[in-house]
Amino acid sequence: MNKIREVIAYKHYFEEFLKNQSTKVQDKVFKIIEAIETLERIPSQYLKHLENTDGLYEARIKLGSNIWRVFCFFDKGKLVILLNGFQKKSQKTPKNEIEKALKLKSEYYNNKSRKHGN
């Protein structure tokens, strides 16, 4: 399968989230990542833009009645950076989880500009 996008994880957050999930959930997460990497148009049941967040997306994992979210964003259109993940217990995505993801996103760009001396 041809990859359209490269998916990378920022620091250790995504890995830690993944480690705490069952194999079934992990498999589902990898299927969704594969879809993000290979599909020209990613269906919104897999990846959805969060309103009023300046480019923050959530990858959506559903298994039975359980729902997980992994935050991510695009960098130069190709890269999806996987940030923190959590199990969703209510209709609304918790504000503190969104704030955490936004913090990580700006940290990512700060580190990147420091590295490139911009």
Describe this protein's structure.
- By secondary structure, the chain is of the alpha+beta class.
- The chain is 38% helix and 29% strand.
- It has three helices and five strands, in the order E-H-H-E-E-E-E-H.
- The chain has helices spanning 13-19, 23-38, 95-116; strands at residues 6-9, 47-49, 57-63, 66-75, 79-88.
- The chain has a five-stranded mixed sheet.
- A hairpin with a 7-residue loop joins strand 2 and strand 3.
- It is globular.
- The chain starts with 5 loop residues before the first strand and ends with a helix.
- The mean pLDDT is 92.
The overall pLDDT, averaged over residues, is 92
Query: How many alpha or pi helices?
Result: 3
Strand order of the largest sheet: 1-5-4-3-2
Largest sheet at a glance? 5 strands, mixed
Task: Please state the structural category.
Answer: alpha+beta
- Residue stretches low in confidence (pLDDT < 50, at least 5 long) are none
End-to-end span in angstroms?
Answer: 35 Å
Radius of gyration: 14 Å
β-strand number: 5
Instruction: List the secondary-structure elements in sequence, H or E.
Output: EHHEEEEH
- Give the % helix: 25-40%
Shape: globular
Strand content: 25-35%
Blueprint of the fold:
Layout: E1 6-9, H1 13-19, H2 23-38, E2 47-49, E3 57-63, E4 66-75, E5 79-88, H3 95-116
Parallel strand pairs: 1-5
Antiparallel strand pairs: 2-3, 3-4, 4-5
Keywords:
38% helix; 3 helices; 118 residues; alpha+beta; five-stranded mixed β-sheet
How would you briefly describe this protein structure?
The chain is an alpha+beta fold.
